[in-house]
Write a structure and sequence with these properties.
Layout: H1 6-25, H2 27-60, H3 65-90, H4 95-113
Length: 115
């Protein structure tokens, strides 16, 4: 049985949703969908990076890793908000494909992370 990592699965789901939006609403909706999927892929990458850093800090200074988790949560919130503002405000991408893809890819991540 093939084993796929989280990045691969999220990328495939993002591309599939982007393709669906291409046939449904055209290329601008596809761009928005791909942008939304890439936002969550970046978010997950950032979280995984922070988790590894917290693991290293826990080995050196137990108890300090909680600070890393709080910083990571605030950082994810700020990046996500900033990406939505940039995508919808400056790039003028349609919000529905962006939010739809963001939500579905995030739910995909939550489902596959349970394994």
């Amino acid at each position: 049985m093939l084993k796929f990592n989280s990045f691969t699965i999220q990328s495939v789901v993002t591309l599939a949703i982007g393709l669906a939006f291409y046939f449904y609403q055209g290329s601008l909706a596809t761009q928005a969908a791909l942008y939304g999927g890439c936002m969550i892929i970046f978010n997950v990458w950032l979280t995984n990076r922070r988790m590894r850093a917290a693991d290293e800090i826990a080995k050196i200074a137990p108890g300090k890793e909680v600070t890393v988790f709080y910083v990571a949560a605030v950082q994810r919130f700020i990046y996500t908000l900033g990406f939505f503002i940039f995508g919808m405000g400056l790039l003028k991408l349609p919000p529905v494909p962006m939010i739809t893809t963001f939500t579905i890819v995030y739910l995909t991540y939550l489902i596959i992370s349970k394994e």
